[in-house]
Structure formats: structure tokens, C-alpha cells
Predict the 3D structure of the following.
Amino acid sequence: MAISDLKLPQGVSGHAFKSPVLLAESLALNVAKHLGDAIEAQGTATLVVSGGRSPVAFFQHLAKQPLDWSNVVVSLADERWVPVEHADSNAGLLKKYLLQGPAAKAQFLSLYSASANLEQAADHADRLLSELPVIDVLVLGMGDDGHTASLFPGSPNLAEALQADGSRRCYPMLAPTVPRQRLTMSRALLASAKHKILSISGQSKLTTLDEALAGDDVAALPIRAFLQPTLEIYWCP
């Protein structure tokens, strides 16, 4: 199966690349162009990215782009509730691979806080995100189970987090894998982004995407919430 075999909805575009390196380079150029255009139009730009290991090459390429990074705000679509020094921290990953060199001048809005429990951490992040400017570019990933950000099928708060018109910005979420405690931006906040991109690799994720396109139960496969115009899908084998 190739991305060209998928029946994408009108207004959703697919881009196929021969290797992860080529995908990362092209994605970085695309994101940098949108951020540069936003800075030119409004003086600032806001980027929200996903964590995990998949985007590392993209982060490294994006960090090299000639942007006015001091006018860029960066945040995370989701975070593991672990300290920044922890190996599983998305914030730690960002600081190691994206917020380097000139890109270190970007303002980083972290979802993590050393609160008493996950619920209080989500409340803290929710208040913090009230200061987040309109998201210019959102880069999402997807798991084989159809989750995106930390919107996991079967998580206790999933129905609330998937409300299309909800006012809350951040929810506590439980992942099926360690570390289980996560924080995630809500569907409503993520969907408000001006430019939305889904970056995935491998046949298994293409199969999941094909399944997502064939149905409409958002709770079963949360990625379905974002398969809307004007999503761009980046894929490589």
C-alpha cells in the first residue's frame, strides 16, 4: 500500500517520500515557510509539535532553518508527566534536538509541571495555555492504535478531550504504555491550528490511517478528528 492508494477526503493532501531523511527535510522546509510567513504577517509565529522519537530528524532540520526564532513560540501537543531530565520527556527531547543554536531563542511553553498529581498538572497546563497565541503550524504524529497527541482510545477523559467545541485546553490522559501518565492538548485547541500536518512512517501506520478513513467513530481512532481539510499528510515507508 502507498499513500496514493488511500481515499483521502477532499481538501486533505498526501505527500510520499522515499526515506525518513527526505521526509524530515521537506517537512522542515514547509513548516519553516509557514512560520516565516506568519512572522512577516503578524510579527510572531506559534508552532505546536508532537514528541516521541519519530520527529527527531525533523527537529534537527527545522533548527537549521533561517527563521527569526526570537519571534517564535513553541509548545507540545502532548507531554509525558515526567521531569524534563527524564529520558521520556518530550520537553527534554525538544531542548536537545530543536531548541539548539539560533532556535534556542524561541519561547518554549512547557506542559509539564511538578504538581502533586496528574490532574493538578493538567489544570496548571490548561491555565498556561490560555497565553498560547493562535497556533500557526501544528505537526501531529499517530500511533498504530490510531491515537494522536495523547488522545488514547479507552483513556478515562477521552470523550471530554475529543469535544469539538470544548473550552478546556489540556487534559490528563492515561496511555497504554509506560509512562502512562500524560498531558494532552484538547481536540478543540489542536484543531484551531491554521496549518495542520500529520507525519507518519511505515506500512502499519498507513494501514491504521486507511482504517480511520473508512469509519467515523472518533473515540475508537482519535486521529479521525483531524482528517479534515486542510490537513497535509507526510508519509514514508
